[in-house]
Amino acid sequence: MQFSSDLLESAVNEFARLPGIGKKTALRLVLHLLKTDASMVQGFGETLIRMRQEIKFCQRCFNVADADICSICANSLRKQELICVVETIREVIAIESTQQYNGTYHVLGGIISPLDGVGPDQLNIEALVTRVQKEHTQELIFALNPTIQGDTTIYYIQKRLHGSGARFTTIARGIAFGGELEYADEMTLARSITNRLPVESYMAGR
User: Which CATH architecture has domain 78-204?
Assistant: First the structure.
């Protein structure tokens, strides 16, 4: 692409850094902003800056939050003894959109993947172990992507929490093996949570 303005080219390049945004899409976005009222563009920019500077991660579950504890953990109407273990914040958003889950979450920040150099110490697993033991959690629902790495992570956490008294379940197989939760439709995801299985049964069926 040839640009007559260095400022325009710089803006396009920055937008193109975002995942899923190519140069052509970035150009369309930038040209749209050029036609938008300056005050709205300023507000857009200030919102992004404020989000990046002020957003926090829940000290309990590692979900995004505006305070030290996220709104889900702080909600007394939710089942605090029930924890849904997920890989990233995207899965929290996906599950919440189903409106079929009324417990809490724990965001691991990834899954165990030795080939990618990701071990248990690089994830929020120890914090989960401490939380379950301290809070006497009744059930952990593993809502990890159904992959070899996801299964490895479930197995490791289950072993670390052996004897904790917590029940271990996993979402039902409405999600195909190798699929990703964030791309599942809401009905399929809702049914997978409602019809969750004991981890032992899930692993035995692999």
Answer: 3-Layer(aba) Sandwich (3.40)
